[in-house]
Amino acid sequence: MRAVFPGSFDPATQGHLDVARRAAEMFDEVVMCVLSNPKKTGRFPLAERLALLADLTGDLANVTVDSSPGRLLVDYCREAGIDVVVRGARTPADLEHELPMAQMNRHLSGIETLFVPTDPAHSYISSTIVTATAQR
Ligand code: PNS
């Protein structure tokens, strides 16, 4: 079974990598797909996000990298023949934000979302925090 792990990955973090590793143990293939989040303006160009993702996941044989900017996740899944979405959840606030999207995605196309609880070691890592500290 194939799964998609979608995100802005702007940039990808060790937290994303941990979720990808664990998903890769559960599925035959995991596609990390860069999509657009209308609430985020975008920091790194798409090409750089993809290059970093490919670099981070280089040792994971069944993890691939793709992008589908400006499209709905359900359309990407339909076209790619993928029925499961993987998302990491760090906090209850994450789940509160994610549940409506998961429910809408299932309503629109029947795809299920599997939430992978973040390892506590990565709970406070976010792309925003990584970017902010890297700029200092
Ligand atoms: O890393 P992020 O920013 O939390 O990822 C959010 C993302 C990109 C997965 C989400 O915004 C998304 O699925 N965008 C694609 C457009 C879409 O399908 N939106 C409707 C969700 S109900």
Protein model, in words:
This protein is of the alpha/beta class and 136 residues long. The protein is built from 5 helices and 5 strands. It has helices at residues 14-26, 46-56, 73-80, 92-109, 127-134, and strands at residues 2-7, 29-34, 63-67, 84-89, 112-117. A 5-stranded parallel β-sheet has the order 3-2-1-4-5, with helices on both faces. 4'-phosphopantetheine binds next to strand 1 and helix 4.
Topology:
Blueprint: E1 2-7, H1 14-26, E2 29-34, H2 46-56, E3 63-67, H3 73-80, E4 84-89, H4 92-109, E5 112-117, H5 127-134
Parallel strand pairs: 1-2, 1-4, 2-3, 4-5
The site of 4'-phosphopantetheine has 12 residues, from β1 and α4.
The geometry reads as globular
Total count of helical runs of at least 4 residues:
5
Number of E-type strands: 5
Strand content: 15-25%
Rg, rounded, reads: 14 Å
Distinct ligands: 4'-phosphopantetheine
Order of helix and strand elements from N to C terminus? EHEHEHEHEH
The portion of residues assigned to helices is 40-55%
Mean pLDDT: 95
Q: How can the largest sheet be summarized?
A: 5 strands, parallel
- Helix/sheet category: alpha/beta
Low-confidence stretches: none
What's this model, at a glance?
The chain has 136 residues and is an alpha/beta fold. It contains five helices and five strands. The protein has helices at residues 14-26, 46-56, 73-80, 92-109, 127-134; strands spanning 2-7, 29-34, 63-67, 84-89, 112-117.
Which labels suit this protein?
binds 4'-phosphopantetheine; alpha/beta; 5 helices; 21% strand; 136 residues; five-stranded parallel sheet
